[in-house]
Amino acid sequence: MRDQIILSGMAILQPAVALMVWTMVMWAWMYATRLPAMQKAKVDPDSLASDPDASLDRLLPREVQWKAHNYNHLHEAPTLFYAVAIVLAYVGHGEGINVTLAWAYVALRVVHSLVQATVNRVAVRFALFALSSLVLAALIAQAAVVVFGLADQAGG
User: Fold this and answer.
1) DSSP code of 7?
2) Residue 41 phi, psi dihedral angles, 5° rounding
3) Which listed residue, 6, 68, 86, 91, has the most CB atoms within 10 A of its CB?
4) How many CB atoms sit inside 10 A of residue 148's CB?
5) Closest CA to 88 of 19, 38, 138
6) Mean of the pLDDT values across residues 76-95?
7) Which residues, other chains included, contact 139 with Cβ-Cβ below 8 Å and sequence gap of 6+?
8) Torsion of CA 25, 105, 114, 119, to 10 degrees
9) Could you give the CA distance from residue 115 to residue 43 in angstroms, rounded to a whole number?
10) Contact 100, 93 (CB under 8 A)
11) Please, which residues have CB within 8 angstroms of residue 80's CB and are 6 or more apart in sequence?
12) Within the chain, what is the greatest distance between any pair of CA atoms?
C-alpha cells in the first residue's frame, strides 16, 4: 500500500507533511499555554479586539508568547518549502538529494521551534534560521534547474 501512495518522485511530500504535523503540534502547544495564561491574567478577548493598543505581548508572560511567535514563523518561510516540495514532486524530482534536503529543512525548523519556544536564544535561533534558509535555497535552486531546463543546457 505504501508503494501506491509514494509514487516516483513523491517522497519529498513526506517531509512536507511532517512539517505540517509539526505546525499543528506548535498550534496545540501555543493554545495549551496561552489560554490558561489569558485566564490567569484575566484577559478579555473582546477588549483586545476593540483596543488597537492592546497586545498579548504586553499582557502575557514572554515564555507563553514565544510559542505563538513560533507558530506564526511556521507560516512564513515554510510556505516556500511547501511550494518547492510540490513542484519537485510534480516534476518527478522529489527523491535523492532533494528529499534529503527536505528532511534537513524540517529537522532544522523543528529544532528552531524548540529553541524559540523554550529558551529563545536569538543567536541560536538565527543560526538555525540561516541554515534552514540555505537548505531551502538549495531546494529552490534544484527546482529551478529542472523547471527551466538548466541541466539540459549545461549538458549540451
Assistant:
1) -
2) -85, 0
3) 68
4) 10
5) 138
6) 97
7) 81, 84, 85, 88, 98, 101, 102, 105
8) -150
9) 27
10) no
11) 136, 140
12) 69
